[in-house]
Amino acid sequence: MKQKILSPYDIFLIAGVIVCNIVYAFFTKEFDPVGSVAGVAGVLCVVLVAKGSIWNYLFGVINVSLYAWISYKASLYGDAGLNALYYLPMQFIGWWQWRRRGAATSSAEAERMSCGADSDTRVKARSMNSVLRLALALVCAVLVVAVGFLLRSLGDPQPFKDSATTVLSIIAQALMAMAFMEQWALWIVTNILSVIMWSICVVRGDAHAGVMVIMWVFYLLNSLNGLRVWAKLAN
Known about the structure:
By secondary structure, the protein is an all-alpha fold.
């Protein structure tokens, strides 16, 4: 069934993050171009992921590159390493995997997307059975605890929150590349923890932290919608 690439809710998310960045800059009297570009590119990316559009990877490259630098400056080494060493190459791997699962990349599709026209070129989603979901939950729990202790030994100011966002994001990104619906459960948890983590950074006065909170709030809103959309795609 053909559907429009961008729904009213998607447009709300994209417009919302832009407006929030403008309002934040007005009240703080500080314009953060790096954080703003990272935030807007990130929301464009996740909105297109939720729609099953392969073009998400174009904006993903911009977002993860900038976010790696921002996280490094905030001493969130887990997030910095995650984006630079994992997310960035995974953008290209994901592009290749999604093409194999039916997502088109033709110029005609790009033109239809920019005009808001109908498109049926989305990735073919799939879902896990109960045994795989249980195994996924156990693996996530063990790795979060182990990496949390490692980051604490390295001086990370928020080791277990950083560990959870790092580990769950790694696994969710892999599930995303393989087009599994269960990625969205992990993204929801990751987004909630990231909002908390960057809010703490705001209190500490870290650079870019305010716009990162805005970005992660919109990520969370999109992940809730993504779970709904991908449940339909998987069926």
